[in-house]
Specification:
The structure holds 2 protein chains of 2 kinds. By secondary structure, chain A is mainly beta. Chain A has strands spanning about 5, 10-15, 20-25, 30-35, 45-50, 55, 65-70, 75-80, 90-95, 105, 110-115. In chain A, a hairpin with a 2-residue loop joins β5 (about 45-50) and β6. Chain B has no helices and 11 strands. Chain B has strands at about 5, 10-15, 20-25, 30-35, 45-50, 55, 60-65, 70-75, 85-90, 100, 105-110. In chain B, the strands form 2 sheets. In chain B, strands 2, 4, 5, 9, 10 and 11 form a 6-stranded mixed sheet that branches. A 5-stranded antiparallel sheet of chain B has the order 1-3-8-7-6, with no helix packed on it. The chains are: A mainly beta, B mainly beta.
Chain lengths: ~120, ~110
């Protein structure tokens, strides 16, 4: 257990529905990242926050995806009008921004299946 | 462009040594990470290199050559529990110091 938690761990939804995932980072960490991972691939960057500011969003992320980190603590990732291609593991990671090594610690992930 | 290459799969025998290679091309360089990921679980941190040379941590060692864009992860005294995917990841110096992950190397340890 890294100290990063995600909820829910599994989500099954029908195409066209909206889903929201939550991530609670390690409390003193100021950076929070969202990744998507499909079978046989490494984590693919989606977006990241420093405190409450969303500093970067992947060009791969369509307008159906939105993320927030309202108070600089937990974060939510929402997918609107889900598509079958959204089926994947959604990973959250947190880190403490520093000049040197900045290790990202991952949560257990939310596995999404869109039927 | 940014690219990280590592072998898709490797097989090794319990008790042996295995070396997993990683080559990278990224926008700037601010550190290379190795993560271990068991099936269905999240990646867990193994090692970090930012300067050239070898970093040793128990049964695991990681090497970096920045001029060659090359790293390897060395696993000694392999155990069955080492069967997992090993992800090479590079942190750049642009785009908010984003970390790019390779597709991972699936290691199978056989008895």
């Amino acid at each position: 257990d890294t100290g990063v938690s995600q909820d829910p761990r599994h989500k099954i939804t029908k195409r066209g529905q909206n889903v929201t995932f939550r991530c609670d980072p390690i409390s003193e960490h100021n950076r929070l990242y969202w990744y998507r991972q499909t079978l046989g691939q490494g984590p693919e960057f989606l977006t990241y926050f420093q405190n409450e500011a969303q500093l970067e969003k992947s060009r791969l992320l369509s307008d159906r995806f939105s993320a927030e980190r309202p108070k600089g603590s937990f974060s939510t990732l929402e997918i609107q009008r889900t598509e079958q291609g959204d089926s994947a593991m959604y990973l959250c990671a947190s880190s403490l921004a520093s000049q040197g090594q900045e290790t990202q610690y991952f949560g257990p992930g939310t596995r999404l299946l869109v039927l | 462009g940014q690219n990280i290459d590592q072998p898709t799969e490797m097989t090794a025998t319990e008790g042996a040594i295995v070396q997993i290679n990683c080559t990278y091309q990224t926008s700037g360089f601010n550190g290379l990470f190795w993560y271990q990921q068991h099936a269905g679980e999240a990646p867990t941190f193994l090692s970090y290199n930012v300067l050239d040379g070898l970093e040793e941590k128990g049964r695991f060692s990681s090497f970096l050559s920045r001029s060659k864009g090359y790293s390897y992860l060395l696993l000694k005294e392999l155990q069955m529990k080492d069967s997992a995917s090993y992800l090479c990841a590079v942190r750049g110096t642009t785009g908010g110091f984003k970390t790019i992950f390779g597709a991972g190397t699936r290691l199978f340890v056989k008895a």
